Amino acid sequence: MPTLEELYRSVIMDHARYRRNFRKIDKHGVYYVHYKNPTCGDVMTLFIDIKNAKIEDAAFIGDGCSISMASSSIMTELIKGKTLKEAGLMREAMENMIRKGEEPEEDLLGDAVSLIGVHPLRARHNCALMPWQALDRIKENVY
Ligand code: ZN
After folding, report:
1. What does the pLDDT look like over 39-83, one tens digit per residue?
2. Mean pLDDT, the chain, whole residue set
3. 120 C-alpha to center of ligand 1: Å?
4. What is the rounded distance in angstroms from the CA atom of residue 89 to the CA atom of residue 43?
5. Cα-to-centroid distance, 133 and ligand 1 (Å)
6. 3-class DSSP state of 15
7. How far is the centre of ligand 1, averaged over its atoms, from the C-alpha of 104 (Å)?
8. Predicted pLDDT at 143
9. What is the DSSP string of 34-77?
10. Rg of the chain over CA atoms, in angstroms?
């Protein structure tokens, strides 16, 4: 039986290798933002298609370490079909999990729970939070 840590690691590696929603959304009215994590050199462009305060589609392109790419892949899967408010709750839980090591409410963060091991690695916090910070930038522009 694999340990929980091994299980989480394999989830991260799978998302980093087979990035979900790794594409551009080339459509009128789509929000996008370029984001760079200077502490690690990770870069991404996040695309979000929002209709009536609901995230219809989410995708990204970019390059960086496994943690940042896995986190981006996981986030785009998580927020698709959610309202901006629901995505905000996830974003808060993600922040508390990475920065404070708090376990999220069951099922709220899906595969993102696998990133809880990043908590003790301070230098990697921004890698795990990068896509969520990019999402913040987009939300600032929506309102
Ligand atoms: Zn990184």
Report:
1. 999 999 999 999 999 999 999 999 999 999 999 999 999 999 999
2. 96
3. 15
4. 24
5. 13
6. helix
7. 22
8. 61
9. EEEETTTTEEEEEEEEEETTEEEEEEEEEE--HHHHHHHHHHHH
10. 14
